[in-house]
Amino acid sequence: MTSRSTARPNGQPQASKICQFKLVLLGESAVGKSSLVLRFVKGQFHEYQESTIGAAFLTQSVCLDDTTVKFEIWDTAGQERYHSLAPMYYRGAQAAIVVYDITNQETFARAKTWVKELQRQASPSIVIALAGNKADLANKRMVEYEVRWPAYADDNSLLFMETSAKTAMNVNDLFLAIAKKLPKSEPQNLGGAAGRSRGVDLHEQSQQNKSQCCSN
Q1: What is the pTM of this model?
Q2: Can you give the pLDDT at residue 138?
Q3: For residue 75, which of 9, 29, 111 has the smallest C-alpha distance?
Q4: How many angstroms separate the CA atoms of 24 and 68, rounded?
Q5: Which three-class secondary structure string do you get for 12-27?
Q6: 145 — phi, psi (to 5°)?
Q7: Burial 171-210, CB ≥16 within 10 A → b, else e
Q8: Which of 95, 137, 158, 214 could covalently link to 199 via disulfide, CB atoms 3.0 to 4.6 Å apart?
Q9: Alpha helices of 44-170 — where are they, by DSSP H?
Q10: Beta carbons of 69 and 184 less than 8 angstroms apart
């Protein structure tokens, strides 16, 4: 998969159905959330990435069989003063990536707090992924991979990958894994605020001129 506007693994043809999902990134400041998004959306990495103020919005798509999954990505600021704004971004999200820095133990502790908050306040069906970023700095690792954290992810029904925005390690794979877990069948009619909280089938919208969702 490449970081084009629509990524098509294995040379697959254009998908016949397009499903749109809201995805939010959460985590401490400087763990690499913006760098992960930039790598996924534009295939770029900036060594010195400015801190996000409030939140940034980007879009990118991946292709699965006959379905294109379009992500509406909200990259939130990690500074504590912006924490109170986070529910505004993860409310109605179908997916979340909680990011920590493998060289900083405190960021993993904070990531677990974010996971608990999502489990308590976000949609019950939200797909949560845990990303241990900066895997290219393994020689400075403070959060061990082999022992506890995959087990923690399993216990909390999370997707888990170590990533590197710098080298692109597992970045596309992470978003692809999330896309595979999102519900994309049984379209339903939408209305009002509830419609904005679900995945929207854009193909059905254009064909039938009415809102459809791609979630169960």
Answers
A1: 0.78
A2: 93
A3: 29
A4: 19
A5: CCCCCEEEEEEEEEEE
A6: -85, -45
A7: bbebbbbbbeebbbeebeebeeeeeebbbbbbbbbeeeee
A8: 214
A9: 86-90, 105-121, 149-155
A10: yes
- Share above pLDDT 90 across residues of the chain, in percent, rounded to a whole number: 58
Tokens coding 192: 């009002």
| Three-state secondary-structure class, residue 208 | helix
Name the strand (E) or helix (H) holding 192. Answer: helix 192-196
Contacts 24+ apart (CB under 8 A), 59-62: 60/3, 60/5, 60/7, 60/175, 61/5, 61/6, 61/7, 61/18, 62/1, 62/6, 62/7, 62/9, 62/172, 62/175, 62/176, 62/179
Contact present, 202 and 20 (Cβ < 8 Å): yes
Radius of gyration of the chain (CA): 17
Give me the mean pLDDT over the 207-216 stretch.
Answer: 38
List the one residue out of 178, 179, 31, 47 whose CA is nearest residue 99: 31
